[in-house]
Amino acid sequence: MAALRMTVGVLAVLGALLDRPDTELYGLEIVRASGLEPGTIYPILQRLRGAGWVSDRWEDPGPAHTNGRPPRRYYRLTAEGRARAVHALQQGRDRSGLSRLLARPRATPTNEAGAG
After folding, report:
1. Among 18, 72, 103, 107, which residue's Cβ finds the most Cβ atoms within 10 Å?
2. What is the tens place of the pLDDT at every residue in 14-24?
């Protein structure tokens, strides 16, 4: 598998796919789940597909045409892609410091008015 640069966009797409790992998602579902624009997710999906992290398939055109829309292309993480995505997201959190921020104990507010 080719090495991928883990940008915020790539991590967002991987996160969207990992949220529903046993489900095929089409582009608009990934757009909604990732918060990214279509023009951003499709190049990312193509890189993930080229690296072997994602598989894809086209929907049967019959039902799509019956519903008055073009066929959808569905994406799903491969088994190896899923393992790599989990690792990449963990590394992304570690690099961003998010894990450390989430692990810090929260300060409890003191009740200044009741202090005497």
Report:
1. 72
2. 999 999 988 99
**DSSP label at residue 23:** S
CB 54 within 8 A of CB 76: yes
In a domain, 39, yes or no: yes
26: which strand partners? 74
User: Tens digit of pLDDT for each residue in 30-59?
Assistant: 999 999 999 999 999 999 999 999 999 999
Helix 38-50, helix 8-19: angle, nearest 10? 80
Question: 25 has which bridge partners?
Answer: 75
> Pairing state of beta strands 73-77 and 25-26?
antiparallel
The dihedral region occupied by 59, where left means phi > 0, alpha psi between -120 and 50, and beta the remainder, is beta
Question: Does the residue 112 lie in any domain?
Answer: no
Does residue 104 belong to any structural domain of this protein? no
